[in-house]
Structure formats: C-alpha cells, structure tokens
Design brief:
7-stranded mixed β-sheet; Beta-Lactamase; about 40% helix; alpha+beta; 6-stranded antiparallel β-sheet; single chain
Length: about 700
C-alpha cells in the first residue's frame, strides 16, 4: 500500500489515534481469530458497551443468533482472501447490542494485511434513520400487520370480537392516537361507533355521531374514495365534533368500508401531529378496509345462520308442543261434543251455555296451535296460483274501510302470479298490516308493493339446492311508523316476542309470517330504522304465465269437502292412534256413526291386522306414532297388503309429512265429529 505523505512535524501516531477516536462511524479492529483488539467511542455508543468491554470479545457476539453460523462461514472465507468492501452494497445487515436489541447497519471492511498487519478494520454505520430504510421498514411493518390480521380472520371463531380488535391493530401499526370504525345507520342520518380506540372522554362504543357533523366521513361515503387530511387546521369544510376537536387532532385519514359494493361505513384514523399520513398509510388502510369488509360480511352471514338455527330450534320445539296440544284439544272438544248428546246435559239450559263456551275456547286454542304450526312450518297448506296484484288491491280496499282514516294506503304492484296458500297469504299480510297500524298511532302511510325478483336477496337463503335459479314475487308492506331498534329486529320473528303492552298481542304474528313464507318455499325480509319505519317483504315462488312456477308447484288445492252422502252401515275401521284418550274419543265418534272399529296403538300392531283376512273398509291412522313407523309408512304398507283400501290420515302437522302432495287425504287435529264423518265420506267416494 502506498504510504500517505506527512507534513513536517506531524505526529502520525497521535493524529491517527485522534482520528480513530473522533470518527462518527463505529470502528472496530479485528484480528484473524475474530477478536476485537480496538474499538472507538462511537462503537461503544452504537453497540451499548462501556469502557474496554468490547476488547477481547469475539466479533461473532455482535451478530444476531439467527445468522451467526452463516456469518462465521463468511468471515473465514474473507480471511483467506481479504479485500476492501465499501458501504452501500447491502441493506439487510443487523448488529446485536449488548442488551440483546438489534440495529440495522451498513458495514465497510478494510484489511490491513498489505501493511503486514493481521487485522481488519470494520466501519459500522446505523442506517435505521435513513429515509429510504425507514420507508422500507414501515411498509414491511404494514405488510406484517395485514398478514397477521389475515391469520386472525382465518382462525377467529367470533367475527364480532375480531372486529373490535381492528382499531388497536391500526393504532399499533401506524403508531397514531386513534382509530374508529363508523358504520352508517340504515336511515343515513348518523354513524354508529362500532369499534374504536383512543375515543374522547364521554364517548363509547355504540354511540351515534350525526352525519351532518362528520363531514369528512359523509364525503367518503358519498364518493366511495379515501380522503387524507394532512392538516386539519388548513382543511376547509371539515368541522369536528367538540369532544373530538378538544383531543387536539391535527391530521387524519378516512377510508370507506363497503359491503357488496355499497359503502356502509368508514375506518377513521387520527393523529395529533400534522402531515402524519401519506400514500403508504392510505394503501395500508385500503387493504385493511377490504379485509374488514370481508369480516363484516362474514359476521352478517354468521349472525344470519345463528338466527336461522335459533328459529329452527324454536320451531321444532313449538311444533312438538303444538302436536301434543292438538291431541289434548281433540280430547277436550271430543268429550264436549259427546256431552252435548247426553240427555241430562242436552236438556239442561244451564249446562249448554257452559259447553258452548268451552267449545269456543277449544277453537281459540286450535287457532293458537295453528299459529305455532305456521311458525314451525308444519301447518297444512293448500297452495294455489295467486294473482298477487289483485290480492293486494282487494286487501287495500278492505283496509281503507277498516283502518284509522289518518293512515293513507297506497298500492304499487306489477302483474305477477305466485304459488302459495291464498288464505294463509292474506292472513300473513293482514298480520303485517295490523302491526304497521299499531306502529303509527298518530297516522302515517301504509304502502303495498309487488314486483318480480329474479332471486332472493343475498342475506336471505333457502336450504334447497334444487331451487337454485328460482324467481320470486316480492310482496312488500311498508309503514312510516316508529321503526325497530337493532335488538328488536334481531328477535322480530321469534314466537311470543312482542313489544306491545300486556294483553295486546301474543307475539305470534310475525312468527307465523316467517313460518308461512319458509313453508311456501320462500323467505321473508325485514328492514327497519327508528323514526323511519318498517318494510316487510314476502318472497314467494313465481308462477309463469303458462301456470307453472320456476321449479314445480308444491301442491294443488284439495277443494271444498264433498257433500255428505252417508256412511255404509257397519263400516269396519282400523284405527291406529298412540294417544289413549284420543282413541277413546275416536271410538265414541265412530260409534255414533254406526261404524265397527278395531284399535291399535302403533303401526307395528296394525300390520298383522292388515295382513290377516279380517274384513276392513277403512284405515284411519295418525301420522306421528311415537318411536316406530309413521302413519304414512303404514299407509304405504296397507296399499301393498290391501290394494284399494281407503286410507285417511290424521295429524296436526303439515302435508310435508304425507310423503308427497296429494298422496293421502289428511284430517287435521283437532277435528269435530262432523269433520271426521265428512273426511271418511270423501275417501270412501274416492276409492269407488
């Protein structure tokens, strides 16, 4: 190496020691074994050592554990062919401080072997403060936070709990003061604080913020684009609420949160320093907003599933209760009918009114169980093709004459045919209209609408893959009443849930509407907001102009009961009924009709009778027969064992249990003696 010329009187040893000590970068002199023999003060400061602690330390101790083996291999290779290496060639070097922390560095190597010295000088410079490095580190931190949030989304069992963590993730990643998720209320007049961190005193999750105050959020919702507020003091047209302004926010960024292409809220982030947000922060929040939208959609889907499962469970429970209650009503009403014919009762004017009152009570009980069966989708339906527009206009005319005159009624309907039970559909619409009237005690507007929907809205689904592609008739009833809170909406279709005063409602109105819609292979949608009103929409299968629906008609109306024509004298009836008291009532009814009856409690008991030579003129069986065979299975067996034998089924359940539309005649419980006789006549005539 060429020697550096020195001026006269220059003390090179003293000068070089001074330069070594004053040099701003950390300098280490390392021998061939990797031991540090000399270190300047900058090295002590950078690496966190004091005094002579670095002297004699192996340089490998300054390398992070993860890369130490690789560094040792590199150092040994370098020792065989030492060469100068300037700074700036690598950005991924890391030094380990005495306390275990790490610092990103650049390192230059200068071998002294050409001067006969077995040393290498390492110049080390911390680069954490470099703008380009800071930007790269920041982007890497943002990417890691997004990846971390993605992992949380995959593993999270509770979407809502994860949603509440989002603001904390944002403030940690961006190192800012506050982050808030604001969801737009259905009426568009306010934002609701759904999740947040760094909220002002007196502000809490669930609070409302007026839309006319949060002007920057309103603009983001309207335009669907992010907005960066670099300096709130210089931004015109932005007015923060008082408690937020008092927090001293100087800059902010707002990104839209969308749900299926529609902006439904914002992710709002604030900092007390001006010029805090740039393109990197905007890209990070845009990416997080997209993931947040997915999370919100999943939360809605999970809540819809939980709601559906809850209603399904309640439906199964209420359906079972209604079935048992119908048996009790059959016994009660049957015995009352028998009492009417007892001479002592028939001739006593004080007893007959009591029997009549009790009979009216059993009919009301039957109506109640009918509503329970409607909710649980086990009522007996008689579907037919319905002109939805004509039905709405007729219903509106009737309501104009009966409702409060302060309620204006409008109809806006397209021509559309749907498949449903006309009696149950009209009852469902009346239920909705009555609820609407009660929600408008001071008057308002009741609107009926009808349109063709090519498919169900996304939140409404049917577990019927065979009906993919089915079109629907959407029948809506809207009011301008008080509206429902989110808590009320969540329970609106539950049986026995009501917000009316005690004695003013059973809580079964909307429950029966829900059950009717689902049993009709349709759905029901609910939109409501406090102070705006409520809209309920029934979606029923569309019927094309040729008379067929998009899938296949569920069933045809069975028509009115036939005209009584008398029973054959001595008709032998095989009765299968698992309830002993119901069997007793059926026996009394059949005795008065002049029939001879043989009774079995289970289908298994009845099979040998059907297989025998015993003369039989009719099989009368309940459908639900406990743990054994169903009545429908017994009827199928009877068809094989005794072709042509008339069969009449009894149940409080729906035609869905019959094994197919129109397969068997069904008598719904509770029934009167006259209804039983009429049903028997009908099946006997059909078998002739």
């Amino acid at each position: 190496m060429e020697r550096i010329p020195l001026g006269p009187g220059f003390d090179d040893g003293k000068v070089f020691r001074s330069v070594f000590a004053a040099y701003p970068d950390a300098l280490l002199v390392v021998d061939q074994q990797g031991l540090i023999v000399l270190a300047n003060p900058a090295a002590l400061d950078l690496l966190g050592y004091s005094g002579d602690e670095l002297i004699g330390l192996n340089v490998e101790q300054l390398v992070p554990d993860a890369v130490r083996p690789r560094h040792a291999t590199y150092r040994h290779g370098y020792a065989k062919a030492p060469r100068a290496r300037p700074m700036g060639r690598q950005l991924d070097l890391t030094a380990r401080r005495r306390d275990g922390s790490e610092v990103m560095v650049e390192i230059a190597l200068s071998p002294l072997h050409s001067d006969g010295l077995p040393y290498v000088v390492a110049a080390i410079r911390a680069i954490d403060g470099y703008p380009r490095v800071q930007a790269a580190l920041k982007r890497a931190r943002y990417a890691e936070q997004l990846a971390h949030f993605g992992r949380l989304m995959v593993d999270a069992a509770d979407s809502h709990a994860l949603l509440l963590q989002v603001p904390a993730i944002v403030t940690d990643a961006l190192e800012v003061d506050t982050a808030v998720i604001l969801m737009l209320e259905p009426n568009g007049l306010a934002f609701r604080i759904t999740a947040g961190t760094g909220l002002p005193p007196g502000t809490a999750i669930g609070d409302l913020i007026a839309n006319d105050v949060e002007r920057f959020s309103r603009g983001v919702v309207a335009e669907g684009k992010s907005k960066v507020i670099r300096d709130l003091a210089e931004e015109s047209g932005i007015r923060l609420p008082g408690q937020w302004r008092d927090m001293g926010y100087a800059s902010g960024i707002v990104v839209p949160v969308s749900d299926r292409g529609r902006v439904v809220g914002t992710l709002t982030v604030g900092a007390c320093a001006a010029e805090r947000f740039g393109e990197d922060e905007e890209r990070f929040l845009d990416s997080l907003s997209s993931m947040l939208a997915t999370l919100l959609q999943r939360e809605k889907s999970e809540e819809a599933l939980r709601h559906s499962q809850r209603l399904e469970s309640v439906g199964q429970l209420t359906g079972g209760i209604a079935h048992d209650f119908n048996n009790l009503l059959t016994v009660i009403s049957g015995n009352l009918q028998v009492l009417e014919d007892v001479p002592g009762c028939a001739d006593d004017p004080s007893i007959r009114p009591l029997i009549a009152s009790a009979m009216r009570a059993t009919r009301r009980g039957a109506e109640l169980t009918g509503k329970l069966l409607a909710f649980s989708r086990r009522q007996v339906l008689q579907p037919a093709v319905i002109d939805a527009r004509a039905l709405l206009e007729s219903l509106a005319d009737m309501l104009r004459r009966t409702l409060d005159q302060r309620i204006a009624i409008h109809v806006e309907a397209e021509d559309a045919l749907c498949m449903a039970d006309p009696v149950q559909l009209e009852s469902a619409l009346l239920n909705i209209a009555i609820n609407a009237r009660d929600a408008m005690p001071q008057g308002g507007t009741l609107s009926f609408a009808c349109r063709i929907a090519p498919a169900l809205p996304t939140p409404l689904t049917l577990d019927e893959p065979e009906r993919v592609g089915q079109a629907y008739v959407a029948i809506s009833v809207a009011d301008t009443g008080e509206g429902m809170s989110e808590a009320v909406k969540a329970r609106a279709f539950e049986p026995f849930f009501t917000t009316k005063d005690a004695g003013r409602g059973t809580g079964l109105g909307l429950a029966t509407v829900y059950g009717f819609a689902r049993q009709s292979h349709g759905a029901v949608g609910l939109q409501s907001a406090i102070g705006i009103g409520t809209t309920l929409t029934l979606y029923l299968p569309l019927v094309r102009d040729d008379g067929s629906d998009d899938d296949e008609a569920s069933a045809a109306s069975s028509g009115p009961p036939p005209t009584p024509s008398g029973l054959p004298p001595g008709l032998r009836v095989l009765v299968v009924e698992d309830d002993a008291e119901v069997r007793s009532i059926v026996r009394k009814f059949l005795d008065t009709m002049g029939c001879e009856a043989h009774f079995c409690a289970t289908a298994e008991e009845a099979l040998p009778v059907l297989a025998s030579d015993a003369p039989l003129g009719l099989l009368l069986t309940d459908i639900a027969l406990g743990a054994g065979l169903r009545g429908t299975e017994l009827a199928d067996a009877a068809k094989k064992l005794r072709p042509g034998l008339p069969v009449l089924l009894m149940s409080g359940f729906s035609t869905d249990l019959l094994g197919g539309p129109g397969a068997w005649e069904l008598l719904r419980k509770p029934y009167t003696r006259a209804e039983l006789e009429s049903a028997i006549r009908k099946v006997l005539r059909a078998a002739q």
